[in-house]
Amino acid sequence: MMKTENRLLDVKDLTIEIDTRSGPATIVDSIDLHVGKGETLGVVGESGCGKSLTMLSLMRLLPNKIRVAKGEAHFDDRDLQKMSNRELRKVRGGDIGFVFQDPMTSLNPVMRIGDQLAEPLIYHRGMSRKQARERAIELLRLVGIPGPEERIQAYPHELSGGMRQRVMIAIGLACEPKLLIADEPTTALDVTIQAQIIDLVKGLREKLGMSVVWITHDLALIAGLVDRVVVLYAGTVVEDAPVDELYANPRHPYTRGLLASIPKLSDAPASRLNSIGGTPPEPGRRPQGCPFAPRCPLAMDICRTHVPKLEPISAAGSHRAACFAVEKAREAA
Amino acid sequence: MSTVQAQPAPLAEEAPVSLWRDAWYRLKRNRLAIFGLCVIVLLAFVALFGPYLTPYDFLSQDLEARNQAPSLAHLFGTDDLGRDVFSRVVYGTRTAFLVAVVVTAIAIVIGTVLGAVAGFFGNPFDRVIMWLTDVTMSVPNLLLVVVINASLKTPIAQWMEARYLETLNPFYRETVWIDFLLVFGSMALISWPPYARLVRAQVLSIRSRPYITAAQALGLSNRIILTRYVIPNALGPLIVAVSAGLGTAMVLESAFSFLGVGVNPPTPSWGNMISDGLRVWQHYPHLLAAPAAVLGLASVAFSFLGDGLNDALNPRGAK
């Protein structure tokens, strides 16, 4: 297991609630997460499982009516939840860069992209307009936008989706953050562009030595990018493993279901795509025991009454899963 | 041989197709809007350069030539004191534009600031500001202006008079600007709530857009986000409202002058000219027709332009 002092981001027992008419409902339930220095973490889960909210909560950017009920989030040994707004603003954009899901709506439509790139540089790094402009050109070149000298004058609507996502990444990287959080940055893009963006981030990560958290619902996409994967289901961590280990030896039935539903070239033609039956529970209607139990092929009685803990299942302790069936199988072995 | 060197133009001056240029392109194809724009530009020109365009002073009376029908010497005829109606209409244009621009400007500043604060920061600001808006809107416009003017005009004029007699300072003798101040002030006081509501609604919708969260995630301050991200994106509908608002302000000023609570004679205003003309319209219809027609034209021009801007700035609504 990674030593605590090597952790750049350390989230403990984070719980997020939403106010509903029938009282608060839990969306994210006691999540533990950590990212080492220079590590790339993939956070995987289906829509609505709380991936994005977890990341937004780190920056205290949760929408109305959604709040952190308990838990800590240490970044560089400082608790993000307890920071003053002034300190937090320095961390946002300065130490933690954010790349959002939708490049079509995440850029200010009435501001030239050069100005949007320059804004954090002026604000966090105290650069002059001129310096910021030069740095903006450099950044656009870094993310592979051709003719950056002219492009800084462009408005977002004049760029294609892939170009806009590159601009978003450039903005996220502007102040050379220690951590880049990318929230499904390739979902809105077509497949060839997705691969380009992944390669881009891979290259930049090595060049800048930063940590990356990559949120996605696409397990296959991030196989070559991340070091470690955390699988979320209904606001809980169900499995946490090094990427190769996870693909070779998935333990949690949900992870297995996810991996099985990736189509393979070796599949028989016209064979049915595997899928996991049922839908995730709504917040406020979580089952009493394991949240995955109603959809789980291995569910036992205990699964419906008790919540499994995230337990190490390998000797090194780097592979952890929250499942009674896995525990039982290990004990039997 | 040309001495001008072929130099690459500096980047900053070279704006690509911007949102505004796009909107202008759409506006250009809307004939009614362009008609409105032409009329407004013409009237604005007349308002600015009025004194150089009029053949007569708007106050000079020619009692030999009273109530004359339109002729080459007097394009719109003369009124009951023998004053040239054309010159008075031109000066009325000045009054109308002055009132419309100043009142709308004050109303927009108040409305934008209050609306943006209410929408962006939410409660408790929102509740207080919206309460203020509702209260202001619930008072009948005309009544409020009449009350302000009736209760303040005379005491202020008397006070000025007393100060003048005491100090002989010519500053206290001029009362025309007091007149304007009261008209501007009272009209702005009743005109800001619609702008505040509009801006608030805009800000509420913009506040939840992803680029605002993105800006917050960059650590930008609320002030920067409000002034550089929220307000610029709220401007489109505001511009439309301003165009319509300028026309409304002109009509409103005429209405107040017509009722005798607006600009006082002898300062010409379309409203008080219409009021004067109405008494004798059976005998001298041109005294009513000339200012009424210009007022109507201005009002229609602003509506057309407002409509055109609405279409031009909402690309989704256009074909």
From TrEMBL, chain A:
It is a peripheral membrane protein. It is found in: Cell inner membrane. Its main location: membrane. It comes from the Bacteria. Probably part of a binding-protein-dependent transport system y4tOPQRS for a peptide. Probably responsible for energy coupling to the transport system. Belongs to the ABC transporter superfamily. This is Peptide ABC transporter ATP-binding protein. It comes from Sinorhizobium glycinis. The lineage of its organism: Bacteria, Pseudomonadati, Pseudomonadota, Alphaproteobacteria, Hyphomicrobiales.
TrEMBL record, chain B:
The chain crosses the membrane at residues 32-53, 96-121, 128-151, 171-190, 237-263, 284-305. Coiled coil: none annotated. One of its GO terms (cellular component) is plasma membrane. It holds the Pfam family OppC_N. One of its GO terms (biological process) is peptide transport. It is a multi-pass membrane protein. It is found in: Cell membrane. Residues 93-306 form the ABC transmembrane type-1 domain. InterPro entries: BP-dependent_transpt_permease, MetI-like, MetI-like_sf, OppC_N. Its main location: membrane. CDD domains: TM_PBP2 (cd06261). SUPFAM superfamilies: MetI-like. Keywords: Cell membrane, Membrane, Peptide transport, Protein transport, Transmembrane, Transmembrane helix, Transport. Belongs to the binding-protein-dependent transport system permease family. This is Peptide ABC transporter. It comes from Sinorhizobium glycinis.
